[in-house]
Write a structure and sequence with these properties.
Elements (H helix, E strand, L loop, with lengths): L7 H18 L7 H14 L4 H25 L6 E3 L6 E2 L2 E2 L2 H16 L6 H25 L3 E3 L6 H21 L5 H19 L1
Antiparallel strand pairs: 1-4, 2-3
Helix pairs in contact: 1-2, 1-7, 2-4, 3-4, 4-5, 4-6, 4-7, 5-6, 5-7
């Protein structure tokens, strides 16, 4: 695994370039998004140095992220009124199962950028939360356009981003506290996703 791990960022770049071409050719390409999310989550996980501790943290963030989304869709209190479409694959209780992996990938991507700033752990977690929100802001227009999820009245509430910030700071703190080695694949993923969704917005 250690021999091929340095190639993970290149694999992610290749798949996102292909995905970008497919998205620009047909809206139907969005149906493959869940597969790309799974690939990103797997490569980020395999790039973690301490596998056993990484498994526990991955389960915590993935399951936690899913439950947060479940509460959010059922109550409207956390993020606002929204529902998931069929684009992101299988759903459980109306929530796309892959969304937990999305939380995991975004948190680790943001946290590994934030840890490059030499400040204390809490400040790094806050910075990671801000990076998560920044990525969510870029993702939202694309997600709505391609039916990942739909907001009531077509409006994204401000407290959606506030909630994203709070939970991503919490998850980032747990991750940064348990891991001290930079996950380069995760850091690359942040830049790749920012460019990918940014280009889709412009196009």
């Amino acid at each position: 695994m250690s021999r091929i791990q340095p190639f993970f960022p290149a694999i992610l770049i290749l798949f996102h370039v292909i995905g970008l071409v497919l998205f620009l050719q047909s809206d139907a390409a969005s149906d493959l998004t869940w597969m790309n999310l799974m690939l990103c989550g797997i490569l980020v996980f395999l790039s973690e140095p301490r596998r056993m501790k990484s498994v526990l943290l991955a389960v915590l963030i993935i399951v936690g992220g899913f439950l947060i989304e479940l509460i959010g869709t059922k109550t409207g209190y956390l993020f606002g009124d929204y529902v998931y479409g069929e684009t992101l694959g299988w759903r459980l209780f109306g929530v796309s199962i892959i969304i937990g992996v999305n939380w995991y990938a975004i948190v680790l991507a943001s946290a590994n950028i934030a840890r490059l700033v030499k400040v204390n752990l809490f400040v790094q977690a806050v910075l990671a939360g801000l990076l998560c929100v920044g990525l969510d802001i870029v993702i939202e227009p694309v997600a709505v356009k391609y039916g990942f999820w739909t907001w009531s009245n077509g409006e994204i509430p401000l407290f959606n981003y506030v909630t994203w910030f709070i939970f991503s700071v919490f998850f980032s703190f747990l991750y940064l506290k348990s891991s001290t080695i930079t996950n380069k694949t995760a850091a690359w993923l942040y830049a790749i996703w920012f460019l990918f969704f940014g280009i889709l917005i412009l196009m």
